[in-house]
Design brief:
The protein has four helices and no strands. It has helices at about 1-10, 10-20, 25-40, 50-55.
Length: about 60
C-alpha cells in the first residue's frame, strides 16, 4: 500500500485536479474503449476500410 500512496503523493497536482475540477475525460475514455472493443472484435477479419467505417458510423 505504501507504493500506491507514494505514487499519489508524487502526482498530487493531478489527483487534486481530478477531484476538484468540474470537467472530466469520461466521454473521451468511453470513445477510446469503444474503438478498442471494435478493433479487438475485428482483428484479422476485415480490412482497415471496414474498421474505419464501423468506427465512424456507430454511435
Amino acid at each position: 500500500m505504501s507504493g500506491f500512496a507514494g505514487f499519489l503523493r508524487r502526482d498530487l497536482d493531478a489527483v487534486t485536479a481530478g477531484l476538484t475540477l468540474p470537467w472530466s475525460s469520461g466521454a473521451v475514455e468511453g470513445h477510446v474503449n469503444r474503438v478498442k472493443m471494435l478493433k479487438r472484435a475485428m482483428y484479422g477479419r476485415a480490412s482497415f476500410e471496414l474498421l474505419r467505417t464501423r468506427i465512424l458510423t456507430q454511435p
